[in-house]
Amino acid sequence: MILTAGPGAIVVNGLPSDQYFTRPAWRSAVALPFEISETVGQYDVDVNVYGGGLSGQAGAARHGISRALLAISPDLRLNLKKEGLLTRDSREKERKKYGQKGARKRFQWTKR
């Protein structure tokens, strides 16, 4: 992710954010750090995200933008932290267990 001074263009994987993120909730999630820090229209963003689906990618872009804004101006930390934008979602896919079909799925048990 690259954050530079500019008119406020957000580019995700080479496309403008309104083309890449089709739902308004995803677009607003990406723009939320700028609204909270009151820096709308001051920085251009170029984000590369992959995996996890569009909702997860929007959350990852939001987290990255928040961390980049914090690196530029540490006094924004209180507002960004209060909104929960600096907390990483640490959930990961559970591993498949040996001898079974998946992480939680088990083979059918038969008594006889």
Describe this structure in words.
The protein has 112 residues and is α+β, with helices and mostly antiparallel strands. It has one domain: Ribosomal Protein S5, domain 2 (2-Layer Sandwich), CATH 3.30.230.10. The protein contains four helices and four strands; from the N terminus they run E-E-E-H-H-E-H-H. A four-stranded mixed beta sheet has the order 1-4-2-3.
Distance between the termini: 58 Å
Question: What is the arithmetic mean of pLDDT?
Answer: 92
Oligomeric state, counting identical vs distinct chains: single chain
CATH A-level architecture: 2-Layer Sandwich
Rg calculated over all Cα atoms: 19 Å
Count up the domains: 1
Strand order of the largest sheet: 1-4-2-3
Strand composition percent: 5-15%
Largest sheet features: 4 strands, mixed
What is the CATH topology assignment?
Answer: Ribosomal Protein S5, domain 2
Q: What's the number of extended β-strand segments? A: 4
Low-pLDDT segments, ≥5 res: none
Number of helices: 4
Helix residue percentage: 25-40%
Structural class: alpha+beta
Shape: elongated
CATH class: Alpha Beta
Sketch the topology as an H/E string, one letter per element.
Answer: EEEHHEHH
Brief account:
With 112 residues, the chain is α+β, with helices and mostly antiparallel strands. 39% of the residues lie in helices and 12% in strands.
